[in-house]
Amino acid sequence: MLKYFVSTHRTQGQRANDFTSVPDVELVDLASKSHDDPDHPIGGCARSFVGFDSRQATTTAEIVESDMTPTEYVRRFHAMLLALGFADSPQLRADAANDAMELLRVAALWPVGTVVERRGDEICVREFPAAT
Predict the structure, then answer these.
(1) What is the pTM of this model?
(2) With the C-alpha atoms ordered 78, 80, 85, 86, is the resulting torsion angle positive or negative?
(3) Distance between CA atoms of 114 and 78, rounded to whole angstroms?
(4) Counting beta carbons within 10 angstroms of the beta carbon of residue 15, is it exposed (0 to 12), middle (13 to 18) or buried (19 or more)?
(5) pLDDT tier at 43 (50, 70, 90 boundaries)?
(6) What is the helix (H) or strand (E) element at residue 80, kind and residue range?
(7) How confident is the model at residue 132 (pLDDT cuts 50, 70, 90)?
(8) For 93-102, what is each residue's pLDDT tens digit?
(9) Residue 21 neighbours by CB under 8 Å, 6+ apart
């Protein structure tokens, strides 16, 4: 089973500068940063995840698990970059694979159901899943 990040509305509003316009359970990537301040009053890029398909932003993501393969995840990550207008090339494919695998590596650190937030270059836990 593969763990990865998806958008979630869980814990939204915990911070005054939270926002989400991504549908629940959309695969998410880290937004590109134009600055390093996660509390920047105007730009939210240093605290955002961005939807693979919607390209909308959110400040929360959740760890989920499915039978998706790493190859399929990398393929979807690559397709997202192509949809953004990047020209396909061997370098783009290598970068997509490296970036996607890094996201999978980080997502594997926490149990399914963990809600995380981005604080600049760090991914931090907001809420662990309830014990069952």
Answers:
(1) 0.92
(2) negative
(3) 25
(4) middle
(5) confident
(6) helix 70-83
(7) low
(8) 999 999 999 9
(9) 54, 56, 57, 58
